[in-house]
Structure formats: C-alpha cells, structure tokens
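Quick one: structure for this chain?
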Amino acid sequence: MKFISWNIDSLNAALTSDSPRALLTREVLKTIAAENADIIAIQETKLPSAGMNAKQKAALAEFFPGYDYAWVSSCEPARKGYAGTMALYKKELAVTADYPKIGAPEPMDCEGRTITLSLPDLYFNLVYTPNAGDGLRRLADRQVWDQKYAEYLSRLDAEKPVVSCGDYNVAHKEIDLANPESNHMSPGFTDEEREGFTNLLACGFTDTFRHVHGDVTGAYSWWAQRVRTSKINNTGWRIDYFLVSDRLKDRILRSEMLDSGARQDHAPILLELG
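Got it. Here's what it folds into:
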C-alpha cells in the first residue's frame, strides 16, 4: 500500500484561490495525485464546521476522482476555521472512519486534529499535533497531548498494526533540523517535545524515514515561510512523519519527502509498504 501525508495550510485557498501561493499549492496537489496513493492524509485544512462547499468539492474531485474522504473541522469551543484534517482513500477500500477524542486539554480535542481509518488488516491514523505556540505558552498542554496521543495509538496497536502520519510539530533529533544550536527553546525543538516523541516511539512504533535512511542529514519536510531564503538554503526542519507499528517495519519499501517545488512551508511525505 502507498500512503501520502501533507500539511496543506488551507485546503480552501488551495482549491479556490488564484494567488501565487495557491497556484504553487495546486502544483503540489498534482504531484500527489500522480503517485496514485491508496490513502492521502491532509492536515490544517482550515475548513468551516460545515465542511467544503460545492465549488470546493468539485475542485477536489478533479484532483482525486477515484477517492472518497473523511474530514473533521474545529468546533466550539475551538476557534472557527482552525486546524482540521482530512483523509482521502480509494473508493474500493473497505474503510470505517473514526474521529477520536483522546482526552487532551480543552480545546485541543475540538480542533479537528485526528482521524483514524479502520481497514481490515490495519489502522491508519493521521494527526496534526498542536504547536507549543509563541513563547511556549501551550507547551504544558502539548505535553499532555503527547502523552494522551501515545496512549491512544498504543490502544490501537493492541488491536491491529498501525500506520500513523502527519505534522507532529517536533524535530526529534538534532539531525532533524538545520540549526539545532539556536533552537533549543523554539517550539518544536524543546526537550519536552522531543522527549514526548521519544516516548511515543518507545510504545512500539518506528520512524519509517530513519529506518530507511539512517542518520542522513539535510533531509527536511518544512521550511519557514517567513524566511524567504529558508528553502533555497535548505534551513529546514523534519517535523512530518510516517510511523508504523514495529511489527510492520520489515514491510517498509519507501519513506521519503516528495518534491514541493518552489513552495515553502511543508512538503508532502510518502510511505510505501510491501
């Protein structure tokens, strides 16, 4: 099976805007569509609570005509049009979708951050992990999220193998970002967040990219939009992951980033299992 994950930073803008950034985003959607993945996970959709309108649905169907989808958006008391996730899956797949609440601090469970698809032989989970925020104001809540999320994935793993992916908002090791020395107190690279990810892996999960590529450096999935030269200079972070239950790791064929061209922010990531 083949899986793709991408933080799109507004599905609405990608499908309906004609801004230069939206045009770049649609080029990435074409790249994703050409891979013909079985399941595509999208984070940060920023859709309203009612979901897509007719124009957006039609535009999405042009890119992915052979897919159904499950989605969840933020709802009260969370901010409107914030976060949100979507899973597209081939219509022939036998899929049941769940939108779990993991017991995270309010309003994280209402921000549309995770979807789980149940397939006959595995669970597929996608997640948009909360950012620790400016000034690390949300770090304590983020630590609780990490604990609750690890417990949730462990419960799934006790039933059948898990493929999990998304924007985890953490660079796990120093080799996962270009400038570790100056970022130890930055959101996404605090000791607390890195420890949370270490604990998640210790629950029986494998970082598929590191399993395939070892300690390769310079491989990133995100480049800051606010820094014009971040992608040109490859001063990036690897904060997007595919994880699998340890018992699936011998089935990993590919785990890599896809080319997102000139578009800064997140690149799609791909996992293929044999």
